[in-house]
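dumping this here so i dont lose it again. seq + smiles for flavin mononucleotide
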Amino acid sequence: MRRRLADWERSARARLDPAATDFFAAGSGSERSLAAAVEAWDDWCFAPRVLTDVSVVDTTLELFGRRLHSPVAVAPVAFHALAHEEGELASAAGAAQAGALYVMATRATRRIEEVAARLPEWWFQVYVLNDRGLTGALVDRAVSAGARALVLTGDTPIVGPKPRSAGPIPLSDEDYLVNLGLELAESATPGARDLTAEDPGTTEEAIGWLAERSGLPVLVKGVLRADDAERCLSAGAAGVVVSNHGGRQLDGALAPAHVLEEVSAAVDRRGPVLVDGGVRDGRSVLKAICLGADAVMVGRPAIWALAAGGEEGVVELLEGLRLELAESMALAGARRLADCDRSLVRFDPGKGGRR
Ligand SMILES: Cc1cc2nc3c(=O)[nH]c(=O)nc-3n(C[C@H](O)[C@H](O)[C@H](O)COP(=O)(O)O)c2cc1C
């Protein structure tokens, strides 16, 4: 799978506008957290069980009462139209075919309703925008279109500066504003993008507001601390996503693989815990489950697969990760995801990446 991912990235880079490649690949600052997110999974080693019957390995799970074929989901990533002409329509169709959960971004570049029509199971990622009315209208549309949960991104009060992607993003106003309202571009060109920017004054108050407005479970994404998990749950969150935003927000922030265990312990099964950042193979998925995650999400891998292979590329990526997870579970002596417990991994930074 590692090799296939590298192939996808190479062929995606060959097809994409260099500015689009940089937009997807970039991390913030010195890109320290970007690299650390990937390497940190290697700091965990397996302590496999012997002589366990693994003739049937089951990767299914239940989230909010819905059965999923795989614990590998597509993370919310902005602007899929930069990766493929069909944008989110293709990535969503790929996730649906692979039986994987799809998290649609606020900054999707195809209409929410059209993307949703391709998805049996999806959640909607929410940025609380400077225009609260617009945020609420987007949430209402996601609810009507069948979203089963909201994912409130909590780590983006402002957008982290990314030197590698400092130039203009080659995205048309039409794609940028497809869900936000094209009239914004016509009425107030210089201020249009400000109204649609993240509100830096957003607090945990938004959790209750979103839960009440939508009637859906709200997960908070970007949690890297046990006390934040507690604060979010107390404010009404139904779960958390452990994430450093793929190393795109605070450079130097901890790697998700290093804090997942303590955040999961704080959540203590009161709701689902998801994790993303640097997951590149099925072994890392298994480590995440052992450390308390219910599911993982992949961001850039899905984008490279989309750019290189469209819908089929996304199916192949997700099914490949699931098969690699199943194989790793068999080798570790785990039949079901519930068997993937903390005893199967040891923290051993000497053997892997840095800490
Ligand atoms: C190009 C790009 C755009 C992203 N856009 C969003 C976004 O709009 N909302 C959000 O919550 N996270 C966003 N993310 C973060 C992803 O949801 C996810 O946390 C991250 O990509 C996981 O790391 P990975 O790329 O190593 O898998 C974005 C990530 C990338 C790479």
